[in-house]
Amino acid sequence: MLKEFREFALKGNVVDLAIGVIIGAAFGKIVDSVVNDIFMPIIGAVTGGLDFSNYFLSLKALAAGTAAPATYAKAKELGAAVGYGQFITVAINFVIVAAVLFLVVKAMNRMKKAEAVKPTAPPRSDVLLEEIRDLLKAK
């Protein structure tokens, strides 16, 4: 059983998958930084200058008729809060990742099509028949 597991784990597909997961995690951090440090401050400035991650609806404050806390973290501590700013941030993050993956898959498909278009060598029988034809013409 150990031998079978070792053969499975050392197959190229498993190693490729592991590398893909590691690169994907690193790419996810880059996209998080782009979204949180570049896009969301711009969107926050356009929508009123607030930190977009602090857009929320405090359900407890609504029910009690009191003022909402200043930050989303405080609202979560007090009870139920709908953090739609966090949701929008994650949704933008997803759209960026999906768009990049779409472009990668599209490029890979284009490269596969280019490989498929390459002419292959004619079968050996065709080459021999052409040589015979050429020899008969020469006589």
Structure characterization notes:
By secondary structure, the protein is an all-alpha fold. The chain has a single domain (2-138), classed as Large-conductance mechanosensitive channel, MscL, domain 1 (Non-ribosomal Peptide Synthetase Peptidyl Carrier Protein, Chain A, Orthogonal Bundle). It is 76% helix and 3% strand. The chain contains six helices and two strands, in the order ααβααβαα. The protein has helices at 2-9, 12-46, 59-64, 72-78, 84-117, 124-138, and strands spanning 57-58, 81-82. A two-stranded antiparallel ribbon has the order 1-2. Helix 2 (12-46) crosses helix 5. The longest helix has 35 residues, at 12-46. The radius of gyration is 30 Å and the shape is elongated. The chain starts with a helix and ends with a helix. 6% of the residues are buried.
How would you briefly describe this protein structure?
Helices cover 76% and strands 3% of the residues. It has 139 residues and is mostly helical. A two-stranded antiparallel sheet has the order 1-2.
Number of strands: 2
Specify the number of helices: 6
> Main sheet, how many strands, which sense, barrel?
2 strands, antiparallel
What is the name of the CATH superfamily? Large-conductance mechanosensitive channel, MscL, domain 1
Q: What characteristics describe this protein?
A:
single chain; 139 residues; mainly alpha; Non-ribosomal Peptide Synthetase Peptidyl Carrier Protein, Chain A; two-stranded antiparallel sheet; 6 helices; 76% helix; elongated
Secondary-structure blueprint:
Layout (H helix, E strand, L loop, with lengths): L1 H8 L2 H35 L10 E2 H6 L7 H7 L2 E2 L1 H34 L6 H15 L1
Antiparallel strand pairs: 1-2
